[in-house]
Amino acid sequence: MLSQHAKAYRSLLRELKKSSLPPHKINPALSSNFRNLAEKARNSDAVFEDLRNAIIFMTAQREHKVLLDRYNPLFDLTAEERIHATARRVGLDMPITHVPEN
């Protein structure tokens, strides 16, 4: 049976895989730092709590991004793109802006 530390480390790696860009490719430096943290967690309860808090934070951060994308699709657009998308949503089309030539 796996120890709590091994379970925490594996769930940490799962969260890193889910949140990494490109998907399923973990930065080696990041994984080695978390591995060192997991090894220190065997000796200290405080470090183990920090490891579990990091897992909770990464899960919440990923879920927050999913919810932002779902309920606010205009979130990552520029101001001009947001205006055009809002106008299209209500059935209008923005006029083409004149750009003077120099």
From TrEMBL:
Record Pfam families: Complex1_LYR_2
A Gene Ontology term for the protein's cellular component: mitochondrial matrix
InterPro entries, sorted: Fmc1
Protein name as it appears in the record: Uncharacterized protein
A Gene Ontology BP annotation from the UniProt entry: mitochondrial proton-transporting ATP synthase complex assembly
Superkingdom classification of source: Eukaryota
